[in-house]
């Protein structure tokens, strides 16, 4: 495909997208297909030669669309919001054309600096303290991750690193692996499954704290679990506080939990993937009380702010 054909096909794609979204309410939301329905319609082996674009595009409507769950349909009420918008689509087109990697400032200066500015915007929008923003008076700041699951893992590994360093300084004769083997992380029994996966990857024990009648983890229950584990010779080090659980949108007691974490020197991470964007509205910020005592927070603009997956804003209160 050369430049001129790309211009033509690009306009055709825009027309197709507009038509798709304008008529999406007429499509069946959940496809009436059986597992394996694509097999037999798409070759098992990769083609030796490319096919004409018209043939490929015909497969989209004839093969792909019949098996799509239409998340943008107004009749879609499963899972959680996954909103998009036309400006987001245009931005995706441009970023895919630039196709740069922003892992350092030198790899793409504009990418790095814009990310810092936008994460500052997001932090200010939901009312985060100054230490979670990029500025000369702060040691923290935000970064855009792909998912809240990734942010949970990064947070756990960060907490693990800080704790291992602290205990290694206190007990220089004790091998790191011995300290590591005693580490314990905590979360509510309503927390997202990614917390368990993060603990598995981080090779630490995860303890679920029983939630109350409102499916919320309290600071008192957390403290009780922490004290029990300390008596066993274990090392509590990290807590995941959920603000908006996936199952029922319950909220853990952030203020109580943050106080315990500060008292017990535990890394306090807030998973606000689902409900975090609602804190843009001041009337919902009661759930954020105690945020000034946490270490990290993650929330998903890709759920309520009409930008594409994957987009998670992760802000930390200090650099390691």
TrEMBL record:
GO molecular function: histidine decarboxylase activity; pyridoxal phosphate binding
InterPro entries the record matches: Aromatic_deC, PyrdxlP-dep_de-COase, PyrdxlP-dep_Trfase, PyrdxlP-dep_Trfase_major
Similarity field: Belongs to the group II decarboxylase family.
Keywords: Catecholamine biosynthesis, Decarboxylase, Lyase, Pyridoxal phosphate
Oligomeric and partner information: Homodimer.
GO BP terms: catecholamine biosynthetic process; histamine biosynthetic process; L-histidine catabolic process
Sites of N6-(pyridoxal phosphate)lysine modification: 303
Protein name per the record: Histidine decarboxylase
Uppermost EC category: lyase
Stored Gene3D superfamilies: dopa decarboxylase, N-terminal domain (1.20.1340.10), Type I PLP-dependent aspartate aminotransferase-like (Major domain) (3.40.640.10)
EC number: 4.1.1.22
Species the sequence originates in: Acanthoscelides obtectus
One Pfam family recorded for the sequence: Pyridoxal_deC
GO cellular component, one term: cytoplasm
Cofactor(s) listed: pyridoxal 5'-phosphate
């Amino acid at each position: 495909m050369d430049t001129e054909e790309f211009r033509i096909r690009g306009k055709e794609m825009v027309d197709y997208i507009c038509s798709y979204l304008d008529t999406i309410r007429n499509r069946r939301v959940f496809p009436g297909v059986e597992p394996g329905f694509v097999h037999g319609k798409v070759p098992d082996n990769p083609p030796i030669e490319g096919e004409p674009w018209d043939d490929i595009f015909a497969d989209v409507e004839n093969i792909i669309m019949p098996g799509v769950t239409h998340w943008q349909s107004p009749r879609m009420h499963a899972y959680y919001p996954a909103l998009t918008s036309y400006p987001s689509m245009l931005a995706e087109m441009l970023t895919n054309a630039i196709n740069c990697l922003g892992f350092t400032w030198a790899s793409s200066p504009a990418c790095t600096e814009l990310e810092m500015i936008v994460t500052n915007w997001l932090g200010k929008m939901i009312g985060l303290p100054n230490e979670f923003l990029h500025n000369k008076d702060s040691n923290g700041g935000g970064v855009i991750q792909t998912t809240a699951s990734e942010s949970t893992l990064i947070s756990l590994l960060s907490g693990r690193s800080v704790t291992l360093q602290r205990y290694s300084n206190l007990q220089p004769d004790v091998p790191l692996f011995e300290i590591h083997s005693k580490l314990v992380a905590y979360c509510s029994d309503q927390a997202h499954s990614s917390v368990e996966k993060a603990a598995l990857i981080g090779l630490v024990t995860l303890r679920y704290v029983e939630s109350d009648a409102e499916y919320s983890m309290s600071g008192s229950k957390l403290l009780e679990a922490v004290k029990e584990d300390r008596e066993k010779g274990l090392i509590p080090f990290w807590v995941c506080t959920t603000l908006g659980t996936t199952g029922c949108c319950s909220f853990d007691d952030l203020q109580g939990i943050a106080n315990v974490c500060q008292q017990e020197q535990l890394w306090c991470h807030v998973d606000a993937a689902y409900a975090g964007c609602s804190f843009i509205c001041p009337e919902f910020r009661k759930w954020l009380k105690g945020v000034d005592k946490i270490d990290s927070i993650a929330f998903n603009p890709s759920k309520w702010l009409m930008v594409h997956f994957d987009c998670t804003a992760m802000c930390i209160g200090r650099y390691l």
